[in-house]
Structures are given as structure tokens and as C-alpha cells.
Write a structure and sequence with these properties.
The complex is a heterodimer of chains A (about 110) and B (about 120). With about 110 residues, chain A is mainly beta. Chain A has strands spanning about 5, 10-15, 20-25, 30-35, 45-50, 55, 65, 75-80, 85-95, 100-105, 105-110. Chain B has about 120 residues and is an all-beta fold. Chain B has no helices and 12 strands. The chains are: A mainly beta (about 110), B mainly beta (about 120).
Chain lengths: ~110, ~120
């Protein structure tokens, strides 16, 4: 099993550009999550999904949209990137509570 | 929402010394508790978790943590530090909720562990 994979690994955007980050998991997990990690802030939840076709807002959802059209994929979109969205983005999946979340390797995004 | 406090953003120990990383949570109802480790330029990896049962939980790489309800704490320890333990450690809690809140993790801000030779 590949586990949780994220595409791309690195990206540089100019302010106002858009992009989509792809998260894929091959473990048939119901729950999927998008986090951002900033120095000294820990991980903050952006959006999450408790099943195919469902999404919900997390702690810091503004400026992001998500979709979960297929159970194994969770997409994070930035419609108009801003420098404040420079961060490392992690995707995670979970089979159900109280199991742990399994994390992808991260995407490092820089917005100039 | 849950609140997680990790006391000390940086901890330094000598190789062979005791490692103690502190974590306190805010919930009056005991949540599920987790410690994750993050090595440079990698994702998070689970070290150990507490859900129910024995309050002393053993994890990978010789780490353990003890859930103390009266102190709302879940401190991480390792008797003898190794150079390979140098990493960032995150404490996280999860609601024992239902429905859409089920499984949400709330993270502390992390503790960077440095191990000196």
C-alpha cells in the first residue's frame, strides 16, 4: 500500500493564481483531512470529510475549497492565492474513531 | 473546542538522558490522546495513543506516556535519549464526539527535541 500520497510536493505560485492539491489514499478510509502547518502554530485543520460526497469546515477554512467526489481522493483548492497561504499542507486519512490519522508527506507551497 | 498546551517549544537533552515532553488538555471529559513525531521534511507519524484501559501507554522507539485524568495531562517520556530521537513532537486530542465532529484532532503547537552527543 502507498498509504497517503500528496501531489505536488512543492509549488510556487504568484499572488492571485489558483491551484489544486491532490490527496489520495488507498486504505479505504472514510475520513480525510487537510491541515496547514506554520512555524510555532502546530497543525491547523482547514477542511475535512467524513465520507464520499461530504465536506466540512475546520479551524481555518477561508480562502480554500475542497471536494471529495471519490472516497480515495480529497482535493484542496486555492482560487486566488495570497502570501498568507504560504505554508506546508498535510493531508491525513482515518478509518474511524478512535483510530489514529495517517499523514501524507506534505506539500510545500510558496505564494509570492 | 479542545485546547492542547505543550509546555516548552524547545527541549534539549544529552544523549542517554531522560526525555520528558509535557502535554495538557482542556476537556473535562477525557478525550482520546495521541503523540505524533515529525522528522525533518516528513509527515507526522504516530508514536502512541490512549483511548481506554491502562493509563500508561507504550509506543514505538521506547517512548511511553501516562494519562492522568486529575491533572488533565498526557506527558511523553523516554528513559534514555538517542540522537535519532531529535525531531518535533506533537500532542493531539480527539473528541469522543459523534457525527461530523468524530475523529477531529486538535494539536498542540509542538515541541522541538534536540539531543546533544
Amino acid at each position: 500500500n502507498a498509504g497517503v500520497t500528496q501531489t505536488p510536493k512543492f509549488r510556487v505560485l504568484k499572488t492571485g493564481q489558483s491551484m489544486t492539491l491532490l490527496c489520495a489514499q488507498d486504505m479505504n478510509h472514510e475520513y480525510m483531512y487537510w491541515y496547514r502547518q506554520d512555524p510555532g502554530m502546530g497543525l491547523r485543520l482547514i477542511h475535512y470529510s467524513v465520507g464520499e460526497g461530504t465536506t466540512a469546515k475546520g479551524e481555518v477554512p477561508d480562502g480554500y475549497n475542497v471536494s471529495r467526489l471519490k472516497k480515495q481522493n480529497f482535493l484542496l483548492g486555492l482560487e486566488s492565492a495570497a502570501p498568507s497561504q504560504t505554508s506546508v499542507y498535510f493531508c491525513a486519512s482515518m478509518p474511524g474513531s478512535p483510530y489514529e490519522q495517517y499523514f501524507g508527506p506534505g506539500t510545500r507551497l510558496t505564494v509570492t | 473546542a479542545q485546547s492542547v498546551t505543550q509546555l516548552g517549544s524547545h527541549v534539549s537533552v544529552s544523549e542517554g538522558a531522560l526525555v520528558l515532553l509535557r502535554c495538557n488538555y482542556s476537556s473535562s471529559v477525557p478525550p482520546y490522546l495521541f503523540w505524533y513525531v515529525q522528522y525533518p521534511n516528513q509527515g507526522l507519524q504516530l508514536l502512541l495513543k490512549y483511548t481506554t484501559g491502562a493509563t500508561l501507554v507504550k509506543g514505538i522507539n521506547g517512548f511511553e506516556a501516562e494519562f492522568k485524568k486529575s491533572e488533565t495531562s498526557f506527558h511523553l517520556t523516554k528513559p534514555s535519549a538517542h540522537m535519532s530521537d531529535a525531531a518535533e513532537y506533537f500532542c493531539a486530542v480527539s473528541d469522543r464526539g459523534r457525527g461530523s465532529t468524530l475523529g477531529r484532532l486538535y494539536f498542540g503547537r509542538g515541541t522541538q527535541l534536540t539531543v546533544w552527543p
